[in-house]
UniProtKB/TrEMBL annotation:
This is V-type proton ATPase subunit a. It is a multi-pass membrane protein. Pfam families: V_ATPase_I. The gene is ATP6V0A1. One of its GO terms (biological process) is vacuolar acidification. Residues 51-121 form a coiled coil. The chain crosses the membrane at residues 401-425, 445-464, 538-559, 565-588, 632-654. GO terms for cellular component: plasma membrane; vacuolar proton-transporting V-type ATPase, V0 domain. The keyword Phosphoprotein does not apply. GO terms for molecular function: ATPase binding; proton-transporting ATPase activity, rotational mechanism. It comes from Branchiostoma lanceolatum. Essential component of the vacuolar proton pump (V-ATPase), a multimeric enzyme that catalyzes the translocation of protons across the membranes. Required for assembly and activity of the V-ATPase. Belongs to the V-ATPase 116 kDa subunit family. It is found in: Membrane.
Amino acid sequence: MGSLFRSEEMTLAQLFLQSEAAYACVSELGELGLVQFRDLNPDVNAFQRKFVNEVRRCDEMERKLRFLEKEIKKAGIPIVDTGENPDAPPPREMIDLEATFEKLENEMKEVNTNQEALKRNFLELTELKHILRKTQSFFEEMQDPALAEESHSLLLGDEERGGQPMRLGFVAGVINRERLPMFERMLWRACRGNVFLRQTEIETPLEDPVTGDQVHKCVFIIFFQGDQLKSRVKKICEGFRATLYPCPETPAERREMAIGVMTRIEDLQTVLNQTQDHRHRVLVSAAKNIRVWFIKARKIKAIYHTLNLFNLDVTQKCLIAECWCPVADLERIQLALRRGTEHSGSSVPSILNRMTTKQSPPTYHKTNKFTSAFQALVDSYGVASYSEVNPGPFTIITFPFLFAVMFGDAGHGLIMALFGLWMVWREKQLMNQRKDDGTWSIFFGGRYIILLMGCFSIYTGFIYNDFFSKSLNIFGSSWHMANISDEDIKNNEMLELDPNVTAIYTPGSPYPFGLDPIWNMAENKITFLNSFKMKMSVTLGVIQMTFGICLSLSNYRFFKDPVSMFSVFIPQLLFLMCIFGYMVFIVFFKWIVYDASISYKAPSLLITMINMFLFKFPDSQDDYMYSGQKGFQIFLVLMAVACVPCMLFIKPFFEWRAHKSGKRTVRVNGATEDTAVIMDQDEGEMPPRPPRGCQATRKRRSLI
């Protein structure tokens, strides 16, 4: 049964694994990817399971790896992804991994702390350097008599105290550029204009030691009189998060301090460079292995999470598990169990027993790199039930073709096909070099879909005669203008080409492939193409719907469900054919019967379908498309109306009657059986009873 057209035949199996071999066996089964485990402990809290401590340790390892990954990306170091897929490490290696991650995390935190402290000191020294440089220019300006008199008058006011000049105090600091206007207004209002502020911007932005962002700052110096204003100015500076620095009063002291600051900056820059080099070396070393470490940590976590679904027997030495697996791969599963037992060094072999159940198994479709994208596309709309027909293989043709019917441009289709062909051609290189970009992953995963969509678009583009929205005259038009003179072309803004005239159109010699390019010059091009594409789309849609209904017949026959066959399939098919099938019929009938000579007599298809449902028919027999049209259309409408109650009521009636009689139909491995309502359908036939303390349930599942 397992093939492209139906899901694989599945069976419920029971595993008996020795405790020391369980980890290795689950690891081998995980690499195989053919087993879906069931939770045998649904009533046990997640924090009370046997391997919860190991899962927490794995979570902690992932947290440390995410921290390292964040630091690597922050430093702009590329993460090496070789495409390597290592096996899950043995449990004893988990301790080594934890020690390695702990050492790297502590080292990175220590380096980050030291680097942040060094950057903070470097920022303070840099700001002090700018303050000493800028304040020197401020004091030199204050030597100007006019400016000194102005500042002195501003600070003293109208009256001098005792006729003696007062000594001016000052503070200097640095503030963020965006806070400066507000800072000035607050100083003016709080000090009532009794301070003198000078400020200038630092040309080069400074690096914030915490965030690493570039910040623009300004140097300011404030002159004032008295201790009261000094206290008020310092409080305002503190409120605006301005940093104040000591600034000597004499030029000699300022010069001496500037020399000392420059020396300390040079020494600090050397230490910073060495710290940055050490940090870079550590991150580069971690970037080479972090992808492999992530895979190992996640595999260990998946194994222990799966082991939490198992039950222990009474001896506490054997783990019991239940899983769904494909019947065709049972031998591969047993070989994987044997390999796991050998790797663990256990002398007791692992046991796999098939169980009988009436539960509906999970759906599993085997895919490869070509069919996986199409199967994922189908599964995104809904996964087929167990043993039902799989629409995936049919989607390989229908989806790209229907896309091309909509797209229909040979030029753009060629670009799409070349892009898909490039991804297929360089598949291995791109797979090894793939990035974490979600958009690129989607494109690369659907490379075969893109290739087929491009190829079909080229085909439909030639049918539409559309190449980058331009028509191609490859074979020469079948329309001629032999009997139309140049004078007629000059005197008439629009000319009508009659296909009934042999000199204009040669009967029996249409354009060899696709649309005649002369339609690109016609006034009624849009009307003609819209009508043509609409009728073609309706025809293709009806064919696809009919095909889908026929697939349901295959399901009903496979599951031996005659009730659905007669109450669902036949009414659905009749309803579709009586309405939409008849519409497709009259489309082709009109194309064949009404040629150019009698095209003016052809009725409108839309009006014909509307009148069909309204039972309005023409009085004259000449207005009918064919003889017996009236009676045939009445019969089709009545047949379609009669199919509606059949689809709505017949099958529910049979299911209601089966329920009243105490039986219902259950699917078992592709067949149907009747089971009494007394037995819970979810439980079905009870499997062999596991040892005490290992009560099996089938409600929660884990996929490995």
